[in-house]
């Protein structure tokens, strides 16, 4: 199964990259302030959905652009065709195709492809995580003197609340802050050791579904489980090295907001 999803992600990445190279003439619209969408997002999601339906006709599908489609099984493929569309539009390389499997109420498998960088991260429950086909080592112990956190700032969240969180991270947790405007890419940085933990302040399930099971397989801890959490929930959580996650306990994370 994993090999098939990797192949779908590769094909989707090629299509996304083709649009990226022509982005100067690509129409761009907004779903909300600074929340952009392009024809590339829709075309890539359509391609992924078509391939998934052909390969797994009984499974459900939940995509950022197309919403949900039920299936006969207890499996749902959760897709973000281009996570980091803002970066995509601006010509940056921090965007990726994200395909995650949600089974029996839990993220179990994920594939992330960042085509500009030429990176493919894959794995999850029962599948040892790999980066471009090479096994990834488990997460290393947390070193407070070089602690780094990826932060997913949400343009829809209250500014005062976000400022207070940033103040806590710098003053109390004493972590170096990274923000790349893509949850998928930020969580990939935890997997590869560039950051110790990722903090979400309002992510959607499609932002994190692929990266989540990969990080758990590498030894990450998260501040909430997925029991009874709908795929439409707004997610505030931390995931990463256990010691780094412990530093964030005062933030009271792990209580999804329901749309």
UniProtKB/TrEMBL annotation:
PROSITE patterns to which the protein is assigned, alphabetical: IMP_1
Transcription regulation listed as a keyword: no
Keywords, alphabetical: Hydrolase, Magnesium, Metal-binding
Enzyme Commission identifier(s): 3.1.3.25
One Pfam family here: Inositol_P
InterPro entries per UniProt: Inositol_monoP_metal-BS (IPR020583), Inositol_monophosphatase-like (IPR000760)
One of the record's GO molecular function terms: inositol monophosphate phosphatase activity
Source organism, top-level taxon: Bacteria
Keyword Magnesium appears in the UniProt entry: yes
Family label: Belongs to the inositol monophosphatase superfamily.
The protein's name: Myo-inositol-1(Or 4)-monophosphatase
């Amino acid at each position: 199964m994993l090999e098939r999803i990797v192949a779908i992600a590769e094909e989707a990445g090629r299509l996304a990259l083709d649009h990226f190279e022509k982005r100067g003439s690509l129409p761009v619209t907004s779903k909300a302030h600074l929340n952009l969408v392009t024809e590339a997002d829709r075309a890539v999601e359509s391609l992924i959905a078509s391939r998934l339906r052909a390969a797994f006709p009984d499974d459900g599908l939940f995509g950022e652009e197309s919403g949900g489609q039920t299936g006969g099984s207890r499996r749902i493929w959760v897709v973000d065709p281009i996570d980091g569309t803002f970066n995509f539009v601006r010509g940056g390389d921090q965007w990726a195709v994200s395909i995650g499997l949600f089974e029996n109420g839990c993220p179990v498998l994920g594939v992330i492809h960042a085509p500009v960088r030429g990176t493919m991260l894959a794995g999850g429950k029962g599948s040892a995580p790999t980066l471009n086909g090479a096994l990834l080592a488990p997460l290393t112990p947390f070193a407070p003197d070089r602690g780094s956190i990826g932060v997913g700032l949400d343009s829809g969240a209250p500014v005062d609340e976000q400022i207070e969180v940033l103040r806590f991270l710098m003053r109390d947790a004493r972590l170096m802050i990274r923000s790349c405007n893509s949850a998928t890419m930020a969580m990939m940085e935890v997997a590869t050791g560039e950051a110790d933990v990722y903090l979400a302040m309002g992510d959607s399930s499609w932002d994190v579904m692929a990266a989540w099971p990969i990080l758990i397989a590498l030894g990450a801890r998260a501040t909430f489980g997925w029991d009874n959490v709908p795929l439409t929930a707004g997610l505030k959580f931390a995931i990463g090295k256990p010691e780094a996650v412990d530093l964030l306990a005062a933030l009271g994370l792990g209580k999804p907001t329901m749309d």
